[in-house]
């Protein structure tokens, strides 16, 4: 299976999170994952779904979140950092 499409803003978000000291695993490279980034630091973990302005989650992504997994949708590095600071 080919890898899924990656949003253009994802590389900036990944680079910024890593520069801020977060460990980032890019999960969107694996078809079938229901979130884009697994972010870790200080024994904490966040699941991030990267979207562009106006873009909505797919049915699979929404279903994953409804199962109780805390997936935050982010569109910018600033939003990603805000989620990971909480």
Report the strand count: 4
CATH topology, what is it called? Trna Endonuclease, Chain: A, domain 1
- Which bin fits the share of residues in helices? 25-40%
Domains, number: 1
CATH architectural designation: 3-Layer(aba) Sandwich
Distance between the termini: 36 Å
Radius of gyration: 12 Å
Mean pLDDT: 84
The chain-level structural class is: alpha+beta
Please describe what this structure looks like.
It contains 3 helices and 4 strands. The protein is an alpha+beta fold and 86 residues long. It has a single domain, classed as Trna Endonuclease, Chain: A, domain 1, CATH 3.40.1350.10. The model has no long low-confidence stretch (mean pLDDT 84).
Features:
alpha+beta, 23% strand, 86 residues, 31% helix, 4 strands
Please describe the topology of this protein.
Elements: H1 10-19, E1 23-26, E2 37-41, E3 44-50, H2 59-66, E4 71-74, H3 77-85
Parallel strand pairs: 3-4
Antiparallel strand pairs: 1-2, 2-3
Write a concise synopsis of the structure shown.
The protein is an alpha+beta fold. The protein has three helices and four strands. Helix 1 packs across helix 3.
């Amino acid at each position: 299976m080919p890898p899924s499409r990656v949003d253009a803003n994802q590389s900036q978000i990944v680079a910024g999170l890593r520069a801020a000291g977060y460990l980032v695993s890019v999960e969107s490279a694996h078809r079938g994952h229901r979130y884009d980034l697994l972010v870790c630091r200080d024994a904490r973990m966040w699941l991030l779904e990267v979207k562009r302005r106006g873009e909505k989650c797919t049915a699979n992504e929404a279903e994953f979140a409804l199962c109780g997994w805390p997936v935050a949708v982010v569109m910018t590095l600033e939003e990603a950092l805000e989620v990971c600071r909480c």
